[in-house]
Amino acid sequence: MPQMFIFGLGYSAKYIARALRSAGWSVSATGSDGDVDFSDAAAVRRELAKATHVLSSVPPDRESGLDPVLDSYGHDFGRAWYGYLSSTGVYGDADGAWVDESAPTGTGRRSARSDADALWLELGAHVFRLPGIYGPGRSALDRVRAGKAHRIDMPGQVFSRVHVEDIASGVIAAIESVAPAGAYNLGDDLPASHNAVTEEACRLLGVGPPPLQTMDEAGLSEMARGFYAENRRVANGKAKRVLGWEPRYPTFREGLASLL
């Protein structure tokens, strides 16, 4: 039986674990909802010794910039397949242009993430670069229902996104296809503005969209302002060609409708 060990059983990793278990895999993980304590080195190494596959969804430490998984256990992976959930933030700002896996990294605001991304690639991992993640309990529908949706007056600003179930299917496609290690963008087919997604959510819920505002008027946090500081469209062609992956939700319209 194949065995997956996951560092960090967070939102996306839970969907990956669920899909693997449905396919007959044994899965163990660290994290608040996992069954192994990350700080228990002996327990982690026992699991790594058994694992045929290892996946990390743990981001680099904000203060030190170090990747805690590689820093603590990078020498214990053995010959397992290993993957890393990274971010398309490694590409930085592209002024709305398309970027693929050949684009330079390390020019954006997430330098620690770019460094971790590069380290995992050097290690021979499958690195999955993810844009904005949405899914059950975490979508524009939820923000509209909670009265927290906004529209920012920034013409030409676009983002890429991916449904969490498509992340899981992309990771599994990489495993099942015996694809070569390297970077893979897992995003949908239609980069779009945040406003367009909010407007579609409002349409589905039968309510009017919030007014257009500046970032100051919307009272956005520094983190949210950083989100708007970068403008790019993320291409998913490599994942489709090499992994044989197709997103079940090719645009935010299908994704939101499924969540409704």
From TrEMBL:
InterPro entries: NAD(P)-bd_dom_sf
Protein origin, superkingdom: Bacteria
Keywords annotated in UniProt: NAD
Keyword presence, NAD: yes
Name used for this protein in its record: SDR family NAD(P)-dependent oxidoreductase
Gene source species: Qipengyuania atrilutea
Organism classification: Bacteria, Pseudomonadati, Pseudomonadota, Alphaproteobacteria, Sphingomonadales
